[in-house]
Design a protein that fits this description.
The protein is an alpha/beta fold. It has helices spanning about 5-15, 20-25, 35-40, 55-70, 80-95, 115-125, 140-150, 190-205, 225-230, 240-255, 260-265, 275-295, 300-305, 310-345, 365-375, 400-405, 430-445, 470-475, and strands spanning about 70-75, 100-105, 130-135, 155, 170-175, 350-355, 380-385, 390-395, 415, 420-425, 490-495, 495-500, 505-510, 520-525, 540-550, 555-565.
């Protein structure tokens, strides 16, 4: 990436930043010191006014009226982490405000994604008068109409792509709505829910609903839920999301919630130490997701909502076991999907539609991500069961998955999602035509260079620059994730002390630099590059700079993302 070196030098000087961190900020559009300072501080006070979101006044008014009248409110959340955390957040706030609240999480395999008419009828039978959909509902025109016929008002809280015709709800919160003035369009559903919580608490405070007998909720304490849902939904960790996740990770470390403490324990995340976005994405999130992928996601809701430590431990252990089962199923499907994908790629396909009888619909989304990583093409995987195919898709940069599916809508029973991920329901007989249409969309939208995996490099790193001060200042740029990846640098140097470690010599361990100034490096799954590191020849490496924390100790370490001979391009 290009970097404005004078601007980087100014950032380094005015903000007392190591030049390496300053160069990263400048290359990412934060060359102005005031903008960079705001980015680094990420203050909660910088969150936008929630009432700038279209529909917020109407949503708050309807919910406040339900609370005042003692109406039963149902929080109907999707079965993934984003929906689960949204459900726990809003239902907790409503109960703290004295509300009569029930929660409902649809069963992925039985009911499928989104608002379900049969579930709405059951909720109506339980006396529900207000339905709040969380991480779903934006395409549920028929279901919202059915709810109204049963006497239920609906407030839709969603972040997925907005259709042309919106449901006739009492209020809709979705930053993608035309005319919405909220400045950040990249929120996860739990981010939209948090904005609703901010606005609702303010209005209830003004109405005198809180006092000695009913303490006002501290919304900082629910940011652990916001961090879980936002990171797990892989939305960009920039703007509002960066602020929410940064402070949410602090709350995750505090473990105020018994369910969080239990989840961290089964996931191997040490208590009482800082939690990173990577741990949320790869350890905590998958376990919360596992419940809904294979069975009942309501267990994840109960885990995060309970105050009972013993129940939390039992639920966390259940989810951990489900996650192991999910991994076994995923491994089997991945092997079959990769073989199918390789065949389509050899035939010239730039987009992939893969299917098979018996593929578990709760796991195909994860496998689609693995297929995209391997072949650098958008992929939709469909599990067929009888006369129904249910699938999930993942995309690559530059290919809007929802728009592509919309162009193929004539072959689909149902679809929804956004730029990077989507879900589909399709008749098995329509799959060949859907594949052809999707491949045509990919061929028209993706050039050959879009199909090559690339590492985004922030510039060059000299071995002497790999210092603790540099790593500490790079840490200030965290949390890293989608839209704001961990900085990767090119390093040309002669490696020393090279050897393989791990089962079968899978990983590469070496050092760069001389004597006391040398820095250890680890390359996971790069054991086959050992030969490049022998004989004293220089190599070209793509590296990240940070710390390795193990057994209470913390030491400087480079992580290898790629390793090549001089002159070979880094992937």
């Amino acid at each position: 990436m290009t970097c404005d070196e004078p601007a980087a030098a100014r950032l380094s000087r005015e903000l007392s930043l190591h030049p390496l961190a300053a160069r990263v900020l400048a290359s990412r559009g934060l060359a102005d010191p005031a903008d960079a300072e705001r980015f680094l501080a990420s203050r909660l006070a910088d969150l936008p006014d929630p009432f700038s979101m279209k529909g917020m006044d109407e949503a708050v008014a309807r919910i406040a009226r339900a609370l005042e009248a003692g109406e039963r409110i149902a929080c109907y959340g999707d079965y993934d982490v984003d929906g689960v955390t949204s459900t726990v957040l809003l239902s907790g706030l409503l109960r703290a405000a004295g509300g009569d609240v029930v929660t409902y999480t649809p069963h992925r395999l039985v009911e499928g994604y989104g608002l379900n008419a049969d579930a709405v009828a059951r909720l109506a039978g339980q006396g529900v008068k207000l339905l709040v959909t969380l991480d779903c509902g934006i395409t549920s025109r028929d279901e919202v109409r059915a709810a109204a016929a049963l006497g239920l008002d609906t407030v839709v809280v969603d972040h997925h792509t907005v259709p042309v015709e919106l449901p006739a709800a009492a209020a809709i919160l979705n930053p993608h709505q035309p005319g919405c003035g909220y400045p950040d369009k990249n929120l996860a559903a739990v981010g939209v829910t948090f904005a609703l919580a901010m606005a609702l608490r303010r209005r209830l405070r003004e109405a005198g609903r809180f006092g000695a007998a009913r303490p006002e909720p501290n919304l900082r304490e629910v940011l652990d839920l916001v961090a879980l849902g936002t990171v797990a939904d892989v939305v960009p960790l920039t703007g509002v999301n960066r602020i929410l996740v940064r402070w949410g990770l602090v709350e995750l470390a505090r473990e105020r919630r018994p369910g969080v403490a239990a989840l961290k324990r089964v996931a191997g995340v040490a208590p009482g130490v800082p939690v990173g976005a990577g741990q949320v994405g790869f350890r905590l999130g998958p376990r919360l997701n596992a419940a809904g992928r294979l069975d009942d996601a309501g267990r994840s809701v109960r885990l995060l909502a309970t105050d009972d430590a013993a129940l939390a431990r039992a639920l966390a252990e259940e989810l951990d076991a489900e996650n192991r089962a999910r991994q076994d199923i995923e491994k089997a499907i991945l092997e079959q999907a990769l073989a199918q994908a390789a065949e389509r790629v050899r035939a010239g396909a730039r987009g992939l539609v893969l299917w098979r009888d018996g593929w578990h619909p709760g796991v195909v989304g994860i496998v689609a991500s693995r297929v995209v990583e391997r072949f650098h093409r958008p992929a939709v995987l469909v599990g067929v069961e009888g006369e129904v195919g249910k699938g999930s898709g993942r995309s690559v940069e530059g290919f809007h998955l929802y728009d592509a599916l919309a162009a193929c809508a004539g072959h689909l029973t149902r679809f929804g999602g956004h730029r990077h991920a989507a879900g589909v329901t399709v008749s098995p007989g329509a799959l060949p035509a859907f594949r052809e249409a999707f491949e045509q969309q990919a061929a028209s939208r993706l050039a050959p260079e879009d199909l090559v995996g690339r590492i985004r490099l922030e510039g060059r790193l000299q071995a002497a620059e790999a210092t603790e001060r540099a790593a500490q200042d790079l840490e200030r740029l965290a949390p890293f994730g989608a839209g704001h990846p961990e900085p990767v640098f090119a390093l040309a140097a002669r490696p020393g002390r090279a050897r393989t470690v791990g089962a079968g010599g899978a990983h590469l361990k070496l050092a760069f630099g001389e004597g006391a100034g040398s820095v250890d490096a680890i390359g996971f799954q790069l054991g086959d590059r050992l030969g490049l590191c022998q004989g004293g020849a220089q190599v070209e490496a793509a590296v990240t700079l940070g710390f390795d924390e193990w057994d209470g100790s913390r030491r400087l370490q480079l992580k290898l993302r790629d390793l090549r001979a001089p002159g070979e391009p880094l992937a």
